[in-house]
Structures are given as structure tokens and as C-alpha cells.
Amino acid sequence: MTEKFIQKAIGKKGTTRRMLGIHKGETIPFTLLEAIRAAPIGTQVRNPTQVGYRVMKVTRLLKRRAVLALNLKRIGQGR
Known about the structure:
The chain has helices at residues 5-10, 15-20, 30-38, 60-77; strands at 44-46, 55-57. The protein is mainly alpha-helical. The protein has one domain (12-77).
């Protein structure tokens, strides 16, 4: 196992934010990530917050990035 596996897992910075239509400097809402995680692939999700796009289609890539963002947020809260 490598020492810095999270840095390699993140890939391109800001891609999740761009897919959700959230500007740089604003936080990605936890409820939006949870809604994407719970939705099946191929469906549309309504954004429960006032930040970002109102409606977005859940793709496999978007779902994977949302799950990664949720896991990283939970890791950061434990510190």
C-alpha cells in the first residue's frame, strides 16, 4: 500500500465541483452528495439546496465522485 493513496485517488481537482455547478470557494452541500449517493444511476436528482444546478442526471462517474467526497468529508471530521 502506498503512503499517499488519497492524493492519487482524487485525480483532477475541482471536477466534482464543476459537475455539480458549484463555484470555487463554496462548500459542496452534504445533502446533495447524499441525494446523489442514494439515487440509482440514470435518474435525475433535484438539488435540495440553493447552491449549484437545480436538476442533474446521475451518471456512474458522478456517483463515484460523490461517494469519494462523502468519504473524504467523514475522514476530515474525525481529525
